[in-house]
Known about the structure:
With 890 residues, the protein is of the alpha+beta class. It is globular, with a radius of gyration of 29 Å.
Amino acid sequence: MKKLTYRFLAIAILFACSIFAVNAQESEYEKEMKKMQEEQEKEMLEMVNEYEDFIKKEQEAFDNYIKQADAEFSNYLKGQWDAFAVLKGQKQNAAPGPVKVPVFDPAVISKKEVKTFSVSKGEADMAPRQVETMGVPVLPNEQTLQEKDFTSRDGSVGFYGTNVRYEYDQNLEKSFSGSINEGNISKYWDELCGAKYFPLLDQLLGFKTEYSLNDWGYYMLVSKIAADIEKEQNASSLLTWFLMIKSGYKIKIGYSDNKIYLMLPSNTTMYGMSYFTFNGLSYYVPGLKGEKIYTYKKDFADSRLIFDLNITNPMNLGSEAGKRELSFNYNGKDYAFSVLYNKSLIEFYNDYPQCEIGIFFNASISRIAKESLLEKLKPIVSKMSQLDAANFLLTFVQTAFEYKTDQQQFDREKFFFAEEVLHYPFCDCEDRSVFYSFLVKELLGIDIVGLNYPGHIATAVLFTDKVTGDVIAYQDKKYIIADPTYINAPVGLTMPDYREVKPGIVVVDNLQNTEQMKRQLWEKIYAGGGSRGDNGQDIVFDETGNAYVTGFFTGEAQFGNFKFTTSKDEKDIFIAKMDKKGNFMWAQQAKGKGNEVAFGIVLDKKGNALITGTFDKEITFGGKSLKVSDKPDAFVSKYDKNGQLLWANKVGLDTVSEMLPNKVYMANFSSNGKLIGKKFFSETEYFDKYGVFVDSTGNAFVTGSFSTALAMGSSKDVVTNTAAQVSFSESMQLMASKLIEGNYSPEVIGLFSFIQSIRANGAKVEGKVIQEAIDKSNPEFKNTSPKVYKNLGDMSLIKNASGIVSINIGTGQSIQLNTIKIDNNSKVKFVTYEDGNSRINVLNGISMSKGVMKYDLNFIKIFKDNGDLLLDYDADNTQKRINMKKDLME
């Protein structure tokens, strides 16, 4: 287990001592200072000892739990495995498209009347992409006390244009000899459990976050590294199985003809891959040709994850860019430009299983491809009407890319992800529809669906302007047909061969539109006095489009006809329901005697809303009051769809919260609000699934961090006097000195000093005080970064408000820090990890620009060793890594 650092406790003592040293003028004061220092050091030592005792007990309990779970599973594996009949892989629903595509002749406009088809929800081919709101949250992996010393080996693998370096315990190199049977597999499990596998597992999960891998990408990486550690195929498969189980997946293994096979659980069909179904869940078996396999039924404890093949975030793989030259004519004007794409992702897609068409419609594309396309097309379509822009993009897809069917190009059916259209010389109907769907969502921000005809794929667009043409009516909305394969045909026309055919619907999730709706709803809430508690899931939508939102307010809040007030300057929680037009249907206040903040919300299957947050004294939900002892605590409360409180309960952290820095908590509640239990885990940089979750039975799970979530419940007074501001400057100096000793990169010492001083002091700080602090800690900063230095001085107020920092600009205008724009009254929250890296979570008001495009910033991660910043932005969590000095300060 990693040793805890007590940075903030030590700094607090040094800070206090420095203030006394400044004011001490006589020996009597020096004695008093020395006495106070000794008392504080003694108090800190007692706290450290108390913390270490608690951690030791928690760790021993965890170790025993892991050993017991491993042993129980080992014993289970020794039992008789069952033979399962394996089904041949399902044949992909072919959409070959026409061998020769029709060309629309504007001179021969059809005089047939407009066609309208109504499609019910049950006829939709696929629901929107899966969202991580239902089910038990995925928790960080804890390390055992034995994971300190081991004989390590270094490894390196090439992974789609990225060189992945890792280290591992040599005891993971376990050859698998002898016959394949239950006893030998159980023995192999025991040997792997006896190795020091946690460090490798921690690296793997870190890679998953760093490269933004989905489940398939993570499986491919684990398989690649396992094959590098153990070259023999059966041993490699067993190591992959072991590491995936320890990562939380419900993966199984089976054997057939003396060979080990991995069995991948998924609710998404993987075409052409053998599979069998157990307890309603399909397990896909890559490489299996036989009709029978032996396997077990019971899952390892805490294995809950099934494979989600959606690609919700752009993956950060490779850096080699491909270029595609494109040209076309629209309304008599020629257009020609080049676009870039990620060649490593093309390689990754080649190894991706062929699956349901909705996966391709909903997939994100690489940062370089997205930004390249949008930078070329946005300036053009932004000057057009909605219909004209849709027709421009439709003509672009119809005529800038040559057509061939998959059979003609590959001699097999192959669905394209949108980015693949830019790589291959030809594309067919479904590829064009996927690509057009991406452009409409990103550039126009309006909804679109795929149309699944027998042997053909097209699209239909939901215009907000009045547009005429052939209609697909779906869920009380009228979508206008747009066919990217009907060459030169404008929006509104169906390909002739399909005018009398009713299509199926491929539901396409529109992240841009959803984020825009969230922004608009939050603007109304901000105007009414509400604020966000964090940048997680604090707003959700039900099936009819109504929104449920939670947060906090100070003083007065007016949400429609619902008016609330707090005591003095304290914070209270609100939850509200808004209709599709943004009108408040109901709102409720959770009133307290301290500071309360809500930061997470989820809906269960019955439409009830569950919220979570923190409080530091007493809070009342309806007639239900919760109290803490003397430290902050977390809560979860449940409301029905009409706003009536069903129950509320606390997690019970108020007895341990000050003893567990750098820890994550998870509490489990029954559907009627009874606390079932809670666990603690080490906080890691790859884990950020904080909030409230609910499973299919209605049980609730709450996760949060002691160093971030509970800091929001602090009722520390805000200090505004001049002496405190001077102390803030001195605090930054002390911080900077500590960071220099900790080998922090010089480029980010000032930023880290500022972040940690804000977190530790809880103060209002004028811009000139920030500049003075910078002058003392880094005198050259104003010369090396004059624009940034000046803009920091324009910040009239930065306030640490219970963990949330408000940034007010003296001029009332936005300020620019290179590509980053900070609006007046923007809000952020700082997180510092145990290894020294930090993260700035953006609650609102900060964006970044890329050419003509503007993206909302989600968070900034700051790396202490090299001065790099990781920018996470846009609705799909696109990421870009830059350097503080090279890219931001110049």
